[in-house]
Records
---
Amino acid sequence: MSSTRTATLLKVTGLKVSYGGIQAVKGVDFEVRAGELVSLIGSNGAGKTSTMKAITGSLPMNDGAIELLGQSIHDQGPWDLVRQGLAMVPEGRGIFTRMTILENLQMGAYIRRDKAGIAADIDKVFTIFPRLQERRDQLAGTLSGGEQQMLAMGRALMSRPKVLLLDEPSMGLSPLMVDKIFEVVRDVHAQGVTILLVEQNASRALSLANRAYVMESGLITMSGDAAQMLNNPRVRAAYLGE
């Protein structure tokens, strides 16, 4: 395996995050290497979303270090991180509801100046999500939850991220739409995009991932090969309903 493939793109060390005196993240360490799909699983309230928000700078951290491509990203805003190759699809999607689908995708490429490349990538997003192409001039706020999730993912991809963060992409979606979203996650990863996936649907997340971390009460309690974890009795009992 080449050194490029195994280079660490995102590294989190000793991360601590608090909400009004409650420590949501209690000192976690993990990394995402180039070309990987890494899953962070755990029950609701385990600290997964707080971790993601700290990585993107939307939530201050109390202690620890976060590095992207070997450089500290402490105290940087989300817009700076996008320029450096980090894009996030947040829990709740965070789309621009009063803009059209096309305008949302164009906003995703705001750091870019290559008009031909942007147009080509919009076409690529529409190939991935034909439903968005059919509604390209429709206001994003009028879309269904699943369509909004598609748009949020498409918009993030427009920045051509080196690392894509996905926070609970299947939350609140119909079973059919969940299948579609995970299919897209698999395909995007297959195209070479490095992904950190936070997901309560542990079975689906582990089936897609190369490696995984289990988070419980603000701590990483288990890590390793995702396929092995999928067959781990403790993980199956705690997260797969067995």
Note: The chain has two domains: 1-85+162-242, 92-160.
---
Amino acid sequence: MALLEVSGIDVFYGRVQAVRGASLTVDAGEVVALIGSNGAGKTTTLRTISGLLHPAGGKITFNGKDITRTEPQNIVHLGICQSPEGRRLFARMSVLDNLRMGAYTRKNAVEIKRDMERVFELFPRLKERSNQIAGTLSGGEQQMCAMGRALMAKPKLLMLDEPSLGLAPILVETIFNIVREINAQGTPVLLVEQNAHKALEVAHRGYVLETGVIVQTGTGKELLESEEVQRAYLGM
């Protein structure tokens, strides 16, 4: 049984249909990439899994439980956590307080402390900047803080929305290495990313979304080698 199963969801903004009959799965231990151009419906799909939008049709199950109509705060409790596009940090709070906010649903102080240490191992820069106001960090540091905050919720599934957006090439490399490391430590990842090449390099499997419809699926390697994907997303 898949950890996450999205089955034939239709999602609307008012009368405009943003996602049409989309189906995807994420298994335990996987990195799954969702690629597509701007406006394809990638973020809408994540927002629907998060409970911020409810589909007009279709079904979403997580760990065998139907979460199609579940409210966002309850979805976080179940273990789905998202690092959103644009980072959405608490800009006037310190790095440390932003990370603590990620753990607001948790009670076990020993485990929270252990996970904070894990975040600082993954992102040594955040440890150096722990008392700095989050809004004054560089773009790359803010992305690290957003990912660290999501990890502090101890996710059973981590969803990353455009983690490399607006970053310098050297930082893009760093972010994707960290995605690999997070996954190697046991956390499944659903990755939405416009940098299709990087996303498919780290992904076990991928889905291609075009105007709300999933048009292609395969392993990361298969999609990297697909002529359609190369033409549309890899500039070849």
Note: The two ends are 37 Å apart (CA to CA).
